[in-house]
Structure formats: C-alpha cells, structure tokens
Amino acid sequence: MDDKSYPHLLAPLDLGFTQLRNRVLMGSMHTGLEESRDGFKKLSAFYAARARGGVGLIVTGGFSPNFRGRLHPFSAEFSSGRAARAHRVITDAVHQEGGKIALQLLHAGRYAMHPLAVSASAIRAPISKFTPSKMSTRQIHKTIDAFARSAELAREAGYDGVELMGSEGYLINQFICQRSNHRYDEWGGSYENRIRFPIELTKAVRQRVGRDFIIIFRLSMLDLVEQGSTHEEVVQLAKALEAAGVTILNTGIGWHEARIPTIATQVPRAAFSWVTEKLKHEVNIPLVTCNRINTPDVAESILSSNQADMVSMARPFLADPEFVAKAEQNRAADINTCIGCNQACLDHVFVNKRASCLVNPQACYETELVLTPAATSRRLAIVGAGPAGMASAVAAAERGFEVDLFEKNDHVGGQFNLAMQIPGKEEFQETIRYFTRRLEQTGVNVKLGQRITAQELKGYDEVIVATGVAPRLPDIPGIEHEKVIDYQTLIREKVPLGQKVAVIGAGGIGVDVATMLTEPEHQDLDSWLKDWGIDKTIDHAGGLYPHDEYVSQRQVWLMQRRPGKVGKGPGKTTGWIHRRVLAKRGVELLAGVSYDKIDDQGLHITVEGQQRVLDVDHIVICAGQHSVEELSAPLQAMQIPVHVIGGADVAGEVDAKRVIRQGVELVAQL
C-alpha cells in the first residue's frame, strides 16, 4: 500500500497553535437536521462518520449569531449558553474520532426570508420577498458584538474554531459591495468604509476567543454580480483580514442571486481554483479553494500546482464519508463520487426537507437507514441492473444475502448509460463505475445478457423487479414517420440529426436532449468561462464582462403540451441553469402545444389557436416513459415474495434519487 499517493492532499497543515491532519476541509452544508427534533443526535452521527473518514477540518452548516440574522424564522441560531451545551454532543462525537470542527456563523442579511431582515441598506435582493431595514450604527455594533459572543460560545461548546460567512451575498458581503451598500456614513461609500464591517467584526471575534482558536473567513473572491468587487479590492480586504487575526481564508464563489452556475454538474471540475491562485502570493495565511472538486486526483493537482493550501469539498462527503481514508489507503477507485446533481442536497434544503445524497441515501440518515447483517442468509434475485437494481443488489450483499443480479443488456447502469452522454452529465459515469466495483467486491453474481422469466426464478426466497422504463410514444397521426426518433435510440445509437429538430416533451429528458443537440463542439474550461461571461482577470466589477454568447447553428424547438414555463427540468436549484442555456443557444421554447400530425412537410402543431408547420428534418420524442414490468403477477401466482422498485414501479419523470433510495430502504427492511 502506497500511503503517499496524494502527498500534498494528505500532508498535515501547521497553524502554529494547532495542526490539521491533512489539507481537506469539509465545507459548510446545511442539512436540515440543525432545526429538527432530535436533530443534534443525528447530526453528531453524520459529522462523526466524516471525522472517522479522515477529514482534516469540518465546518458546520450556518448558524445565525442573532434572531434577525436567521435565514427563516425557525432557522438555527447560536447565541446562548443553552445552545453551546446542546452542541457539545456534536463536538464530542467529532473529537472522539480524532477530527476537528468549526462552527459557521452566518447572518443572512437581506437574504432572510422574514420581515425582520436587516442589511447595510434597504435594498431588496432579487431572490427575496422581503425588503430589509437599513441597519443603524447601534445595530451594526450590536451585530458585531453578537458575532463575537457566538464565537466565544462556540469555544465553550468545544468547537476548534469558527467560520465567518463573508461570501455568497450574505450580510458581511452585503456591506462589502456597492451593489447592496448605498450608505454614506463610516460603514459605506468608499471601499475602505465598506470593508470596515468585516474587519471590525473579525477583530472583535479574535479579541473574544484568544489567539489559539481557528478563525476561517469565507471571502467572496469572485462575486459574479454587477457592482461586485474587483480583484484589487479582494486583495486589499484579504490583507486587512490577515492583519485582523484570520487564521485561514476560504474562497467564496458567486452570490446566490448570480445568474451563473457555480456548483452544478454542468460546471467543469475545479472550475474556480484559478480564482484562489490569484490571491496566493498576496497573503501569508493558508488559502482554501472550493467548488466542483470531487476526486483526490483533482484535489492533489490543485495543491501540487500551488493554487491553494487546502481544498474544500462539501457534497463529496455526502456521497462518501470515507473519501479521505480511501485516498490514504490508495483506494481512490472505491470512492462513491459526487456527481454535482444537487437533487437530494440543495434541492431538499431549499424546500425545508432534510438533505441527503442521490448516490448515497444513507447520508444524513446514519442512525436510521442502517444495513444490519441479515439474521438468516437468503437467496435473492434482482432483475434489472439500472441504478435501482445495482443499489439494492449492493445493499443486499452487504447485509449477507446471496444475490443474483440479472440484466438483459450486456452492461449494467440502465438509464445512467444515456444520462452520462449528455453534455454536462458526464459525471453519471462515475456512479456506474462505483456500483460496478461494489457489485464485484460484495460478491454479487451479475448475469448479463439474460432475459429472465418468472419460471426461472422459482428457487429464490425473494425477488426484486427493477426492470426500468421504456419511452412512451404519444398518439400523434404520423408518429411512425421516418423523421421520428425516440430519445433512447437517439442517444444510444448516436443517430446523426439534421439542422432543424423538434423535441416533443420538455421534461428533464427533453431539456437534456435540446442541450445535447445545441452543444458547441469543443468546450474546455476557458471557453466555458467565456460563454458565461466570467472575466479571469477580475478587473471588471464582480468578475463579469459583456460578452457574445454562443448561438447554436442547429435550430431546435422544445415543446410541451401543458401551458406555463418550459424547460424547468427536474432540479429545483438547477432548472434556471437549463433555461438560461437553452435561451443562450437560441432554442425556441413553446408551451400549450397541440400536436396535430407528422408528415413529409414536418410537424403540424397548434399553439394559442394558431396552426403552424415546423419544417424540420427530425422529431425527437421525449414524451415520458412507461414501466417495463411483466414478472410480478406470475411470481405472485407462484407465491414467491416479489417487490417492484424504481421505474418498473413508477415511471414518472426519470428520478435516480427516488429509485436508489427506494432500493436501499427496501433491502434494509428485508
């Protein structure tokens, strides 16, 4: 075993008064457990698993230093001795596993979703319903004191440090930028005045906690909004923060109101490490870089090229709590990779549901979704090796079942084999890789190229049917025309299409197909940054510059029957990205469409009472799916216990999050 496979990633970091065991920071994530009943017990198990997995320093989700700073009226606050005592269960659990943990202090400012919101100025954020009150000088001083008091309480609670949330457009960031600070007193106007708040706040925290306590400052190094900071200003603030007593500077990328993707799967890996590198030689304290770093190789490359001193990863630790330990043991191939989908983490948190992970449903359910050894070993047949079948097969084998997994194709992965061919969804290949490896390691007997009948399943104690879905063909006159192709055939067989294409169905699959059809041929990091108008020099305010957007040479229409917004896609936090991409590329979005017929002229439709003929070369059908399931009835007749999961159970929109969780939960109960 070569434990020096990642020498920079696994090197300790000396902070003077303490040492971190490696260069890995688990970035702040809100899980929803912070406010739930009995949540701290579950949260302590969640953090303990990551500490046990080798993380150098964990940062909690954000806690407000006072009531007005809460994100929601019932959001987590950390401002009393009682709160400090309650948090002991978390810090003790992490320390027992040899880890270190810092509490993030986050004041929402104008992002607060309640009428008591306050900010530097009374300017409503474009993503908020509430206009904040302008803070008085007295309120500013009281808020600074609240931060310092909370930091002192964090020390009492056993935390090793605090992170001051100064990025992503929250209160501290709101003072820094002209966009949200229109004051004319000593807290506004000139840049020196606008950065007075973060500097005074940092000084107050350092004075209250003493010298041997970690203070991380999350600095917005690239705002990605108009009237944001320039690089020169970021350097000025970074130096002032170092002088004020900050131990570590963490990178923040983009305000929440920015209309540029920063963490979704479409964003190239390590797309923003160059931002941190620009500050690297300006300060003498450790710098952390972040965003879309999801493998030890990517992390090692960043550190070895001296772009940063540490890497921050958040969602990769939802996907695999043992990420660091596996890197240490030279088992990077065993890591369950984060695919950046946001579907079970951010999408959940934004609707006040508990976070989890599409590829690891046990994340944030460590005390509930437990795979205990089976009392008696039984023979289990699973039919279908898509995401649901693979996940349930691995979970069953981990419990000690004897598992045979049957798949009619000559490969596992199901719909993920199609998804990974969509530009920006290449990460889905990682999930197939991970599960393929786990099937082998857990001893699952995988039988490819086998269409199994109910009769052949006679000798099994239980059968799980996960046979997935097939495309649904809508009832349109002329649907058999040679111009028509279904999405599965298009992606699987890479059928060449003409320059004018109609896409019927604007759900997640329709959006993916329209994106694929209009993707530029060569998309490297620099062209991706340029496409989104990101200025690598950060000379322009917020790091944005006016730019020419790429418009596809192929003409594409994306249509849906129902009226309303087109191209939402399945993700709550990523739908706007899909719509923005389609608009940028010139895709015509049509809602409330009736499909009249298909013939040699093209696709005949009616929209808002007007008849149109789209003179298209091809028509791609993405009009939903239907379940493929013929085994449960004959198996029940033979009195063999049968369970139907995944797309075979409910076709609906293709939802890997639902089907993987369903498979693991079922197996946990067998």
Give the CATH level 1 class of the largest domain: Alpha Beta
Average pLDDT figure: 94
CATH homology-level superfamily of the largest domain = Aldolase class I
**Category by helix and strand content:** alpha/beta
User: Cα distance, first to last residue?
Assistant: 37 Å
Largest sheet: 8 strands, parallel, barrel
Return the CATH topology of the largest domain. TIM Barrel
* Poorly predicted regions: none
Total individual domains: 3
As laid out across the biggest beta sheet, the strand order is 3-4-5-8-9-10-11-12
- The dominant shape is globular
- The CATH architecture of the largest domain would be Alpha-Beta Barrel
Organism: Photobacterium atrarenae
Family: In the N-terminal section; belongs to the NADH:flavin oxidoreductase/NADH oxidase family.
Keywords: Flavoprotein, FMN, Iron, Iron-sulfur, Metal-binding, Oxidoreductase
Cofactor: FMN; [4Fe-4S] cluster
Gist of the model:
This protein has 670 residues and is α/β, with parallel strands linked by helices. 30% of the residues lie in helices and 17% in strands. Strands 3-4-5-8-9-10-11-12 form an eight-stranded parallel beta barrel, surrounded by seven helices. A five-stranded parallel sheet has the order 15-14-13-16-27. Strands 18-25-19-20-21 form a five-stranded parallel sheet.
